[in-house]
Amino acid sequence: MTESTDWQPDTELPLYSQRVFELGADPDGESPIAATLIRAPKRPRSAKGAVLYIHGFTDYFFHEPLAEFFVAQGYHFYALDLRKCGRSRRAGQTAHYVTDLSLYDVELSLAVDVIAEEAGIGPGPDDPKIIVGAHSTGGLIAPLWVDRLRRLDSTRHGLIGGLILNSPWLDLQGRAAMRSPAVTALIRGVGITRGLTVLPQELSPAYGDSIHESRHGQWKYNVDFKPLGGFPVMFGWVRAIRNGHALLQAGLDVAVPSLVLRSDKSYFAKQYSSRTDRADAVLDVSHMARWAGCLGGRLTSVPVPDARHDVFLSVAPAREQAYAEVEAWLATGLRPPVAKAAAKKAAATTPPTKTIAPV
């Protein structure tokens, strides 16, 4: 059973609104659960469609300049704090914990329904569409969901116009042994039997230190929702992630155009340094380059020099390029270009026009 509240003032961002989806019982035993849809206060004068943005792990929506960018491009902007994340997490719940990424389909579909009604989104080929943006873990959740919509819910899939993936998590970072069948089997075994067991490896605070205004960065956000050193990682959650990786790497068909943005390099360290500011300090960008082609549909993949893990929180030159890439893709990447070969073939098969001399 799912219910939603009316729009209320957002608890984190002044002038923004939020709408809570009450999702009821939690399949993972931490009931009751909810998800929160956030709406930007500014509305485009002439809307081209809407954007639904999905955060990553140890994350929630706080990035107002991102919303303002999409509104300036002519899109209504919405973001979703998933169950047990950010605004949606309730007392006693394990942050971000799910044992199957498909569980998120409930709140994602609810969000699509609300956005479609408010923003005039339709299934027709010329109707405005929803562009799904997603970061990191959200960049794994989103294409898996859109692929399921294509197979199981064609009506909602017809409302989706494209994907923008910001440093998507498409494989497990670290040494090759971490991706071996033996380690994967261990993760799955412990994940099934003792899902809430914490992985012994702690996350580095280097990335958080590079972006938060209290340390070396310029961005202000709620560290209760997004701790600098990250939330503990549970075996049951990593099992869900590895299952998602396996599905994606076997090949999806999202059947919409995709834009993948990432840094041109990764740099992993236990502590912050200036190198952290100009690289992905969380994930391995070579995995993004390798597996992006498994999304299906038309793909544009762009390495952004010196970008951080969240390309839209990068140092200014990289951030500006990331926005420019999105702007160009929105203008030209959502509809297939006219194939030159097809045009030449059509011209070659068209009978020549006969000129009749006057008599």
From TrEMBL:
Residues 46-180 form the Serine aminopeptidase S33 domain. The keyword Hydrolase applies. One of its GO terms (molecular function) is hydrolase activity. InterPro entries: AB_hydrolase_fold (IPR029058), Hydrolase_4 (IPR022742). Gene3D superfamilies: alpha/beta hydrolase. Keywords: Hydrolase. Transmembrane segments: none annotated. It comes from the Bacteria. The keyword Hydrolase applies. This is Alpha/beta hydrolase. It comes from Gordonia defluvii.
